[in-house]
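Hi L.,

You mentioned the student needs an example of a multi-chain input paired with its predicted structure. This one should do, with 857 residues in total across all chains.
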Amino acid sequence: MSAHGHTVHVSAAPTGFIRKYVFSTDHKIIGIQYFFLALTSVVVGMLLSVLMRFHLLWPGAHVPFLQGGVMTQAQYLSLVTMHGTMMVFFVLTTAPQAGFGNYFLPIQIGAPDMAFPHLNMLSFWVTFLAFLSLMAAFFVPDGAPISGWTAYTPLSGIGQATGPGEGWGQTMWIVSISLFCLASLLGALNFIATLIDMRAPGMSLMRMPLTCWGWFVTAILTLLAFGVLLAGGILLFLDRTAGTSFFLPAGLVLTDQLQPHSGGSPLLWQHLFWFFGHPEVYIAILPGMGVASHVLSTFCRKPIFGYKAMVFAMNAIGILGFVVWGHHMFVSGMNPYSAFAFSVMTMAIGVPSAIKTFNWLGTLWGSRIHFEVPMLFALGFVSLFVSGGLSGLFLAQPAVDNLLHATYYVVAHFHLVMGVASIFGMFAATYFWFPKMFGRMMNPTLGKIHFWFTFVGAYCIFMPMHFLGLVGGIRRYADYSAISYLQPLRPLTMFVTFAAFVTVTAQLFFLFNLFWSLKKGAVAEKNPWHATTLEWTIPSPPPHDNFGGQYPSVYRGPYEFSVPGAREDFIPQDLEPSQLAAEARS
Amino acid sequence: MKTNEPRSSWAAFLFPALQFLLVAATVYVFLSKKYDPPPAITAAGAAIDHQYDMTLAVTAVTFVLAQLGLAFVVLKYRDHGQRVQYSRGNNTLELLWTSLTAVLFVGLALLGGKAWASGRMFEPGPDTVRIEVTENQFVFNFRYPGPDGKFGRLDPRKVDASLGNPIGLDPTDPAGNDDIVVPTLTVPVNREVELLLRSQDVIHSFFVRELRLQQDAVPGLVVPVRFTAEKIGHYEVVCTQLCGLGHSNMHTYLDVVSAEDFAAFVKNGGQ
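Structure written out for the whole complex:
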């Protein structure tokens, strides 16, 4: 090994447009493709939510471009379904892991690419097909499905007889989700192989940036969880198309017609779905936790507090995340004894979550905070994670769930902790890594405006929703007029809706900043944040093989900021000890 | 970028201010009790409320301390040129907050067990009123066994709402002749009621806020739940499980009546 690391032979960069930007095997291009796929999906998902909020306030209003002019209850439920599916799968699973993970995991561990570049390309294009299938559900006869992103059967399992959208729309949904599962499995394999096999000399597991730990644990969860959903999806598809009865019991009567099914169990679908669905929550948030830790340490100019505890907590969350799925099913009709076990396990998962929060506060303690835009979003992440996480303590108890299940309280809880907090992690990641990815800085003034509006706006949308739920506001209701106790909730609903409109509008600052900075942003230097990890030791944007043939060796942990006696307030992971000593002497 | 010059920012003041506002507004709305659910009408419901209050106490303290703590460190450690306290962590602190939260959180879960068990795990007594609840898109039907105390057999092939047989009573079973099938739920006050929840088509739910009771009705299963209402009154029953097109219109009423009125209700065949 040479004094400047080691040399690796990598394939030459492709020159044609198609191989370079479309069917690329370069993990950086694939990461950007995932990023823009998620960006497209988040815009679609957000517009769907705007329509939903609009409908809740003015159910009879004329909506342009809509068949019939006025939104029907079925169309509202389609929006519920498609918003959830779009956001959970194509945004929260896609951007933090497949997008940023793809781009930065190989670089941060000092690798030239993913372990299986062609598999990586295949993952993206299968995900893209899944996206097209889901979008197609809008355009098939009868429109998109109405069964929610959880697709509980028999509503989703029989076909058109259960409601509009349950014909072709639901089928397209299942095809989309199954393809998505397949792509995620391929991606997870790739992440795990890359991380285990391709770390630079000296990059021990306990010297990895916490971002890499986040992606690693997430990849393991993905591998174990998405396989189960894929199996569920195939069985559901067979129930609908091949006349099987995996999830359909005997004696089903629809519009006075006895259905020819027997022997299946609707609860089986829920178990399979939530065995995936709960780890999915952590799949969405763990990369965000990694990013928040990484960004906090960088802009505190201070090592992360309790690195080992942070790694332990992420792994504990990953493991416990697989034994808590039953808390989605307390009132589902499953054996009430099992609720005890799921409840205790769910409360236990609050412990590693609390460990992470305390360590973030510990990192801030005694630091010297630089309030750059990524840091603002990381601070927002901590605040939102605390608020959203604590309401989970209520929902984790089956007795209390009697009152709160299926109300807006649940909607508030998971939007804050899994939705908005994860999105804040992604915003932090975008503002932080944009200079590395595109070689230009994003505009900090626009970034700050975006942050303040989004931070205040998200709280104004989702804090009041807890109260809507407490008093009995039921989720997935297209119309409040039938239930008398829902009538007094209109002012609060209106407040939430206007907060949503303002917050969505504020995202234009982000979109404009993103596209404007691609072309016009100030040129970024190699290491604009004075950060320590390997991606900041290479040009912005990095060359095709990341390290220009000279691969780094790693000599220390990822967060060596403000080390006493050092000349600078940060020490890059690949700075040789002899050079460091020389710098200190000079 | 010169690292030693202070880089102050108004964010150092705005962020803590917003955190403070968040805490103040949240605490205010909780204390105002403006959005509290209506009072529980069962002892089990009161136990659930007690568990809720304990959880609220734990989370409120944690919420206020954590959010104001975050505000405090952001304000205090804004860049005014200070030296960073180099530290990689503190194992004693890790141990302390890990064990503290473990005891608090798991303790809460264990305490909540009893309130859950009271509604779900039981043997019906001799005096328990048994009522079968059948849900389908998008109506509730409640069946009382009638004077003979026995439910008649059901046959899904006989379901025909237009012929007045929405739940599919089998006419060949004499036990079903006196069964009462009505679209609203009437129960006697201060007497244990067991509901047997069924669904004919998709998954529905049964939720009454005042009972603090929510339970899905799943096709293929009969799910028992229990409650003893202690207050005469008229309450709304809603479906909380997404069941299709008419989900938000699927509702009915619970009437808690005196023992005499209930006897009359049964005697008159549900009138």
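You could point out the following to them. Chain B touches chain A through 107 residues (CB under 8 Å). The longest strand of chain B covers residues 129-136.

Best wishes,
N.
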